[in-house]
Amino acid sequence: MQDIHEMNVEQLESLKKKADLLIVSKKEQSVADAYEEVVAIAASVGLSIEQLLDYGVQKRKTGLRKPVAPRYCNPENVVETWTGRGKKPRWLVAQLNKGAELTDFLITKE
Questions:
Q1: Which of these, 85, 88, 87, 90, lies nearest to 68 by C-alpha position?
Q2: How many CB atoms neighbour CB 18 within 10 A?
Q3: pLDDT tens-digit profile of 68-100?
């Protein structure tokens, strides 16, 4: 094979076109190989690829986190609760700003 430093512009352009075609071909082959792997994985657990993809969509919709029981409750309105995750609710922030402690709102299990 000729050293690219010794090639003229026409030869380099030809080499570039061949390389671009080879890159496209290899990418297409990689996608085809990945598809076959996914089909084989689905088949190994007794599913079609469509069923496997539907499972993934449902899993994403329901989320991976399990529901968490509330840990804090507004004593003025017991319907208002907070799990302790995420942003604090307004009722809790207002009480904390008045000097209350977070532990004042803990739901105790009797």
A1: 85
A2: 10
A3: 899 999 999 999 999 999 999 999 999 999 999
Q: What is the pLDDT of residue 2?
A: 82
- Cα separation of 32 and 95, whole Å? 59
Q: Please, is 30 exposed, middle or buried when counting C-beta atoms within 10 Å of its C-beta (0-12, 13-18, 19+)?
A: exposed
Task: Report how far residue 34's alpha carbon sits from residue 1's, in angstroms, rounded to the nearest whole number.
Answer: 33
User: DSSP letter string over the chain?
Assistant: ---GGG--HHHHHHHHHHHHHHHHHHHHHHHHHHHHHHHHHHHHTT--HHHHHHHHHHHHHH-SSPP----EEETTEEEEEE-SSSSPPHHHHHHHHTT--GGGGBPPP-
Banded model confidence at residue 62, pLDDT cuts 50, 70, 90:
low
